[in-house]
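Reopening closed ticket. The problem is back. First fold of the pair:
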Amino acid sequence: MATHLSQDDLTFTKRVGHTVSFSCGGTGQCGSYAVTWYQKKETDTFRPILYITSGGSTSKPFNHPQENDFVAERNQDNCELKINLVKLDHSASYYCSCRKSGSHSEK
């Protein structure tokens, strides 16, 4: 069974040095599975940044070159990816996904 997550905004326009947050709704459907955040630059493939467990523990095993710029928070039905100090190199779209019962859903 597929998990359907919702994201209102994949891309924001922010000035360098400001803070930006991306929200991912419906993560309660992920159950105990982790939510993974991806960065998609125009000329690149999807690149995983980090994942966050249902308990709120964050892990960054993907060797993303900007991994220290990102933090995530997760509650019962929402997950948020935050960039505290936006840099020009953060220009991209950001996506969340989770895997449940052998399925994979990205939105």
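Second fold of the pair, where the issue appears:
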Amino acid sequence: MDESITPAPRGHAADAALEGLFIEILDGQLAPGESLPAERLLAERYGVSRITVRQAVHKLKDVGLVEVRQGGASRVLDPARADARVFELLLRCADRLQSDAATRLLRDLAEYQQLYAIGLLEAASRHATDAEREHLLQQVDTCPATLDAADAQRLEDAFWRRITAIGRNRILQMEMALWQRWTDDQDAIDGDPAELRWFYLTLARQLLARQDPVPFYLASVRTTSA
């Protein structure tokens, strides 16, 4: 385990302990079945109080990464058995994970995001009115032909928010609300912003023409991932 962890700034102590322990578990520095270090040691490592450490451990318990034993040492659980609430921590800590297992998990997360987008497009294809499809196309078409990275990010966010709304699936809408809260505009746009505009313009045109947008979406993301 890394003993040279820099304490977090005041006000972020709870996040430092929670995210630090999460990274150690996901990267295998704390292996499944292993006991967590004593609260005193963890408090020293992260520069926080023992109460803060205890709160972090219980949050990890809630997502299925730690088993808390009354009167005994808490034990690390297999990350593969954690539930979906681990997504938030995964998104927050993605750029600090280094192990092969964590890299595979991040690939799985990227694939899941693509599958989720397919669900959003399918729902929009089923439920959007002609007026909503026209409005979506206008929303993309009025974007400048030349976009910088910030403009491209705004276009992407606005497109998927609109797709989610016109799809009228409450479960997908709830999940989108979670993604927006978790990512907090931290995602970076991959590729050429101009190509991104063309990509969303094509999807909007297919929806307006009542063509299935999923084959085009899949072909595009598979090309990008190749």
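Update: turned out to be a display glitch only; the data is intact. Confidence is low (pLDDT under 50) at residues 1-11. DSSP finds ten helices and two strands in the chain. Please close again.
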